[in-house]
Specification:
two-stranded parallel sheet; flat; Alpha/beta hydrolase; 68 residues; AB_hydrolase_fold; alpha+beta
Length: 68
Amino acid sequence: MEKGIRVPVMVVGCGRDEMTTAGLQDQMTRPWAGAGYRFEVLDTGHWVMLEDAAGTNRLLGEFLDGLP
């Protein structure tokens, strides 16, 4: 059985998260994601969606608008 994520995936990395760095978030997800992988970084700590709700919503909207 082949493992992996077969749907579009977006990861929003946290640019100022010292425990789960943006690079680590990308490294953990990219190998499993196929076509349609998108990785973005916002200048936040760990709670990206609370610290930058507008930026998170903008990226989510762009991602969803790009789906078939």
